[in-house]
Write a structure and sequence with these properties.
Radius of gyration: 17 Å
Largest sheet: 5 strands, antiparallel
Bound molecules: guanosine-5'-monophosphate, zinc ion
Distance between the termini: 44 Å
CATH class: Alpha Beta
Structural class: alpha+beta
Shape: globular
Number of strands: 5
CATH topology: HIT family, subunit A
CATH architecture: 2-Layer Sandwich
Order of helices and strands: HEEEHEEH
């Protein structure tokens, strides 16, 4: 068995509840769901994170996530969907095989939806926003 949990799931060495598979990707249910129907999309080929994954696998994962987002609305009755990727331990990544969380959202249904906005939106200082943009485009 692989040392990587998600490689083991892709290989079928670890059990999972799969909901989709194609040439490049597999999607399966998250064992700690943030909402009803929370799934994870992974590339079959191991990549550590968002910065390492190749463009073709990235595109394939995003297409699978889009399909599952549609299914969440049409088959689960979700009111919306969040896609989440955590890149790096400081960004909450805990499994180091790239994955996209597909999290169906349910309006006013806390029993089905435990997701909450993790920050309090407030206006940033315009000069600091501009300085960050300048750093990004330097
Ligand atoms: P991350 O924190 O890296 O963005 O997300 C990792 C996700 O993988 C978590 O939501 C966690 O619940 C899920 N997870 C961890 N181990 C397993 C496992 O063995 N099987 C499944 N199905 N999900 C897992
Ligand atoms: Zn892996």
């Amino acid at each position: 068995m692989s040392e990587c949990t998600f490689c083991s799931i892709v290989a079928g060495d670890l059990p999972s509840t799969k909901v989709y598979e194609d040439d490049r990707t597999v999607a399966f249910m998250d064992i700690n769901p943030a909402s009803r129907g929370h799934s994870l999309v992974v590339p079959k080929e191991h990549s550590v994170d968002l910065l390492e994954i190749g463009a073709d696998d990235m595109a394939a994962c995003m297409q699978t996530a889009q399909k599952l987002a549609g299914d969440a609305k049409t088959k689960l009755g979700a009111d919306g969907v969040n896609l989440l990727n955590c890149c790096g331990a400081d960004a909450w990544q805990t499994v180091f095989h790239f994955h996209i969380h597909v999290i169906p959202r349910y309006r006013d249904q806390p029993a089905k939806d435990r997701l909450r906005l993790p920050w309090t939106p407030e206006a940033g200082a315009p000069e600091e926003i501009s300085a960050a943009a300048a750093d990004l485009t330097a």
